[in-house]
Amino acid sequence: MPIEFTVDEHVARLAGRVREFVREVVVPEEQACDGVLHDGPEPLRRRLQQAARDAGVFAPHLRLDLRGQAVVFEAAGYSLLGPLALNIAAPDEGNMHLLAKVAGEDQRKRYLAPLEAGEIRSCFAMTEPAPGAGSDPRALSTTAARITGGWRIDGRKWFISGADGAAFAICMARTGGAPGDAGGATMFLVDAGNPGMKIVRNIATLDEGLFGGHSEIAFDGCEVGDEAVLGEVDRGFDYAQVRLGPARLTHCMRWLGIARRAQDVALDRAASRSAFGRPLEELGMVQQLIADSEIDIEAARALLWRACWELDQGRPGAQHTSIAKTFVAEAVHRVVDRAVQICGALGISADAPLSRLYREVRPFRIYDGPSETHRWAIARRASKARAAVR
Amino acid sequence: MPIEFTVDEHVARLAGRVREFVREVVVPEEQACDGVLHDGPEPLRRRLQQAARDAGVFAPHLRLDLRGQAVVFEAAGYSLLGPLALNIAAPDEGNMHLLAKVAGEDQRKRYLAPLEAGEIRSCFAMTEPAPGAGSDPRALSTTAARITGGWRIDGRKWFISGADGAAFAICMARTGGAPGDAGGATMFLVDAGNPGMKIVRNIATLDEGLFGGHSEIAFDGCEVGDEAVLGEVDRGFDYAQVRLGPARLTHCMRWLGIARRAQDVALDRAASRSAFGRPLEELGMVQQLIADSEIDIEAARALLWRACWELDQGRPGAQHTSIAKTFVAEAVHRVVDRAVQICGALGISADAPLSRLYREVRPFRIYDGPSETHRWAIARRASKARAAVR
Amino acid sequence: MPIEFTVDEHVARLAGRVREFVREVVVPEEQACDGVLHDGPEPLRRRLQQAARDAGVFAPHLRLDLRGQAVVFEAAGYSLLGPLALNIAAPDEGNMHLLAKVAGEDQRKRYLAPLEAGEIRSCFAMTEPAPGAGSDPRALSTTAARITGGWRIDGRKWFISGADGAAFAICMARTGGAPGDAGGATMFLVDAGNPGMKIVRNIATLDEGLFGGHSEIAFDGCEVGDEAVLGEVDRGFDYAQVRLGPARLTHCMRWLGIARRAQDVALDRAASRSAFGRPLEELGMVQQLIADSEIDIEAARALLWRACWELDQGRPGAQHTSIAKTFVAEAVHRVVDRAVQICGALGISADAPLSRLYREVRPFRIYDGPSETHRWAIARRASKARAAVR
Amino acid sequence: MPIEFTVDEHVARLAGRVREFVREVVVPEEQACDGVLHDGPEPLRRRLQQAARDAGVFAPHLRLDLRGQAVVFEAAGYSLLGPLALNIAAPDEGNMHLLAKVAGEDQRKRYLAPLEAGEIRSCFAMTEPAPGAGSDPRALSTTAARITGGWRIDGRKWFISGADGAAFAICMARTGGAPGDAGGATMFLVDAGNPGMKIVRNIATLDEGLFGGHSEIAFDGCEVGDEAVLGEVDRGFDYAQVRLGPARLTHCMRWLGIARRAQDVALDRAASRSAFGRPLEELGMVQQLIADSEIDIEAARALLWRACWELDQGRPGAQHTSIAKTFVAEAVHRVVDRAVQICGALGISADAPLSRLYREVRPFRIYDGPSETHRWAIARRASKARAAVR
């Protein structure tokens, strides 16, 4: 089979439907969630997801490989609300992937099924305040101690997206070893309402999550039964990899949609607004901004597809995933930044979606491994690969 | 007199006092204005300004040339609240400069004196929605028509900073010619409460002004007397230049303080936080971020001082002002962006001041002439200068 | 057919053989052509091409589509002499492509066959000194006037690569219209030795062509018969497009090989050289340089493959070709620049191949359309595409 | 004394004369040294220096502080031959500075006087092949062993600029300690013709030195008398600092002249050459290149002047010197690169001086400490400075 950039016909058709759905249904809802949501975000989510079901675009990830997801998720990402509507937003989408791979029968019924159906939301509780698990997951400090018939979890997590309102958390805790060790982690399914799990606060961040942003959570003598163990004891770090690789890429897919949206807003503005007697789109410096963003978007997409293909083939794909993540996060930021510049005062006002997108994309260079950590890993792998053939 | 970078002793002493005042008094107040101000921002302003008076650092601009201001304003800009405390924040500081140069005796008593004393605030109403006065001021569309004993102003302004709560506006309106003409503008002093001047809305923007951000204002049959004319009729564009040149530079001074603050926050974090077994400040990629920011800050300061010197000498200084404004706005943004990256998740959370600074600095590349307009002007002047010696 | 990055097995095998051939046979010859070639470059070319024949890797382009060429040409480009050895160097490779598409039976026998066999070399005479055909081909000023039984060509060409020693030139001349017109150009096959075609000088350039660099050629009453017309009269601009699209991409393929070579040289150095007590490859700033080059190489390759696929499908592909050309030319430059930096003094000395590569790659951002022209075209196409769906 | 950018009148007058001399006398000679110099470079040097004496601009550094040198050297650097003509080229200029500070009476007569008069040339032999003294001078491996009445030097040096034809070398050798130690180095004055000092080869480099480029020198049982010791035994590292600080800055001054020259060549081209119906200088993307170079030049000059001022005040100045060196070397490279791009094919041909300048400036980011080493030092000093006030 040769190098091939054709998109499968059924994927192309689905992506086309998603594009139309986002443009016709989701984008008009955006203003709502920028202002005050008098009935909270939950009704908005239910309304959007029902519309997606009606349009036949709900939960498309369940029947697509990563390359197919790349095309469809980018289309959905064109609005910040798109992934929510299609039930492919983080962290639920990554959790579904993880549960589908690791959960037992009962757990699938109880957690995965309603999650796929959009009946509940979830969160993934791994990151801890310093000196706990951050860019180095092995620093995991939260502990799960054996008690009769179950476990008692103690520790603190933060920057846990979507925790506020989630029906359950997947909590990573140390069942063996000490902070710094490469093994000994276990994942637990903890139900909201467990008296030992408390949301301490919602951390205000540059990006405005729709659902209370990113929470700090205290696990304080949080007792769970044996049936709460996800997969096997002590295999938590392995499962984290199962989740993280594809989750990085699905993040990139959604971000790419944001970049395309920003570029379109900028192109519209450049066509309609004049300066010094000519439309902006005919001014050389504006053309340079536009062209650089086109190049960035194309390169981001090509690298992303490449990484998806690697994972779809069952190859390790760590190098391609790191490269794609680093480039896409930085390229998306550049594209939105250029769009803001082209739109001028409008670009930084809430009258256009750009300032919202701008706040949303800056953290991408930090989330899922900061660019520096990925560059370090990329360089090390390059050095090793070269040493192997020297 | 040779090239000289010594700071005058009295300026150095004053800057030292300002630095201490900001560190001891202003920075601790920052949390207050990030959260809810139950009694509104005005009490905060009065409290801070009284503290500045007590510390002997209030309104220092009245006794400094631009080079002196460069040193002192940078020290004040270390906190977003610093310039407010010292009564050297935009737009009041620029308005004071303008009034001091152009206002008549009565106007000075009525507007300048209480402004200098911090008793009132003001705004500057020039920018208009498309197709009015934007990056091209000659597109001015608001009109002032002669009536008996005065003028009637009609038109719309937007992105008018500080309008909400201002005691008066300096409004630019066309008393002659048509949009596109290089002359025919006049400045008017319009009191808040004039029934013909209404704040339509406060435009939400990426940067969060303390006082309602940036307003849209409607002038609708707004009648003012002859004594409302600032300076002479039809000389508004000249006066705008009087205000704009130094105002661009004082903006840069305050921004530079922001950059220094961000860098210090990053340095503190890099010293206290470890990754992979070493403090961040010992990791090469972090050192590169730190070094690049040091270089940016030094270059920004040197270009700024140069432009200030040009204006202090009474030279035209347009080229040096454009160069300084363009470089400083972009450098400050890079410095804050790098600081965010060094601080990671903390950098994008409200637990550190960086995410607030980050939102604040992006618009600098657009305000006071977007980088592209300045580059266009810089290139044209360079071409002309070269042609002259060819 | 889904998105696919597998390389066809026969292509992969061929590329593997080329890689080995370049490493074992071609790289060791490099020193020879950096110093004085006492018997001139022609014997070197013949020796290398014979070795390529013996290794079964000669003239591989004749049996590969563009995607296959992308893989194989990159492998050949690992040495500046590689493409020469395989007979896929510019301008011959592009001329073969053009002749294969357009030449008549007799022309194929007389020009294409010996060219494919490596018996002769050729050149492509299109570019003219200002105000002639440069980045704007329509400025074509060289004329071909009808004479009995043929044409008389008058005009001047420059930067004609490989002219010195070429057996024939493909000369573009105006048979109709005037400079600035979009039509009226015809291609002529002019034999070396025609008394009306003279090499005026070889222009010294930053890149050192192996064969006299880039020549300036005078056509002065140069008479050719009707059989010298390539394809049809007045269709020269169409044929130029036939040649240019793929030629841009084959250039990119060879350049990419240069980038990979530079990166390998840098990786070897970073592994063997220490500073401050650690191998360079463990220093963060060096890792950043290495990682950025890996990212650049991967993105360049992905964009290039994409553009090749577009042309292989028979699509227009102008946008993807422009994007690939612009990105690859700039990325290759960055990669070589970083490699020079990593290698330090060695990097700028002739003791390593980098300084030679460095000189070679700078012109890529100018040849085949400067980056600015491509960006202008990319922006215009983006604006049009957006307008179509608005 | 306030911040001041006025250039002293006598410096301004001198710089004016230098500018005129370079334009009228030196630039016309440039073509000569790009081609074959049938009588070698030495006659050219003597001719140019006599012309400089006649014009009253010879050896101006002897009567200027660093700020004055900054202005005059930049004027001289406008041509690559300018510093040679004025006898302020590296390495002679740095050696004169060192000798003036450290040499004894006899040494001054014998070495300094004829050097200042332009009668002889010299070289500075410090850098060694790996694992010797490179970016880390303490790795010094060349030894000087005590013999009766003098010393015997053994070791190998390379990248020694101007060695070919120099009347003497200042050789740094270890008289105590072992490679890696921070002390124990001594400087020796070694006459050309000493049978123990041999030029092994001239290393071909990207930049083409006028005098045989950069040599590799073998010290093989090289015997010198006690009078050959420069300053005191074991103080070589101190003296190296005496030489290096100002030498870095004088390098920057000359480079800045190169940048200004490149920008002028580009401005001339942009004024005279048209594309798409308009002069290049009116195209937005070209204007951006021009403006960015103006900004770079102004920032480079401001940082350079600042560092000069620090040293002129007798302050340590290491941070400002590092910042200036790093920024200037990179900015100069960008300026020349942009000029090449603006000039297109002409820019990479020897028909314009740019390709020569381009080759010349790349090594600046490596010479006198690579950018990475300076950034490391800048970051460390910034961290320390912050820790001190924390």
UniProtKB/TrEMBL annotation, chains A, B, C, D:
Occurrences of domain Acyl-CoA oxidase/dehydrogenase middle (ranges): 123-204
Q: InterPro entries annotated for this entry?
A: Acyl-CoA_dehydrogenase, Acyl-CoA_Oxase/DH_mid-dom, Acyl-CoA_Oxase/DH_mid-dom_sf, AcylCo_DH-like_C, AcylCo_DH/oxidase_C, AcylCoA_DH/ox_N, AcylCoA_DH/ox_N_sf, AcylCoA_DH/oxidase_NM_dom_sf
Q: Can you cite a GO biological process for this protein?
A: fatty acid beta-oxidation using acyl-CoA dehydrogenase
Keyword hit for Flavoprotein: yes
Pfam families under this entry?
A: Acyl-CoA_dh_1, Acyl-CoA_dh_M, Acyl-CoA_dh_N
All copies of the Acyl-CoA dehydrogenase/oxidase C-terminal domain together span 234-382
Q: Which keywords label this protein?
A: FAD, Flavoprotein, Oxidoreductase
CDD domains listed in its UniProt record:
ACAD
Which residue positions does the secretion signal occupy? Answer: none
SUPFAM superfamilies in the cross-refs: Acyl-CoA dehydrogenase C-terminal domain-like (SSF47203), Acyl-CoA dehydrogenase NM domain-like (SSF56645)
- What does the record give under GO molecular function? acyl-CoA dehydrogenase activity; flavin adenine dinucleotide binding
One GO cellular component, as annotated: cytoplasm
The Acyl-CoA dehydrogenase/oxidase N-terminal domain covers which part of the protein?
13-119
Cofactor names: FAD
Q: How does it assemble?
A: Homodimer.
Query: Family per UniProt?
Result: Belongs to the acyl-CoA dehydrogenase family.
Q: What is the name attached to this protein's record? A: Acyl-CoA dehydrogenase
